[in-house]
Design goal:
26 strands, about 200 residues, mainly beta, about 0% helix
Amino acid sequence: MRILDSADVSPEAIIGAGSSIWHLAQVREGARLGENCIIGRSAYIGTGVVLGDNCKVQNLALVYEPAVLGHGVFIGPAVVLTNDTYPRAINPDGSQKSAHDWQPVGVEIGDGASIGARAVCIAPARIGAWATVAAGAVVTKDVPAFALVAGVPARRIGWVGKAGHPLELVDGGWVCPATGDRYTETDGILEEAIDD
């Protein structure tokens, strides 16, 4: 495990073996990082956030509680995972909001998914396993597994395989050009093809 001196890591955080936390990153109380995670410069990991093994959170990303990331999740530079459905600094009576005046909601990200640079995921949302959110996208609803989404608001523009490459439609099925793996689509859901 490697934690640089300028990082602010709570003694109540759990950091997995082999993980690295870079300059000026902050990891809050109760956060749980799996093994071999990388937290980039000036990234923020909120109270109680959970990261699986082999996650990479790039520079300046903000992962607010109660986010849950599966294994092998990539969070690009300056990504924001929000946690407040109706954000306000003050209550209707003008008093300043406190932690007791709202209920945080989280973003959940499945194994192997990637969130591109400066994308924003508005909680509550679930990003399915192996999905890819394009850089600059704004996710406002759940994203299915293997989906490639882009835009504001984000919409599915294709499918991706586990290698991250856009899939190609071949003979009525989807094929990864990088690995040759095959996928089948049924009613808007993509799954890995099962060899007979």
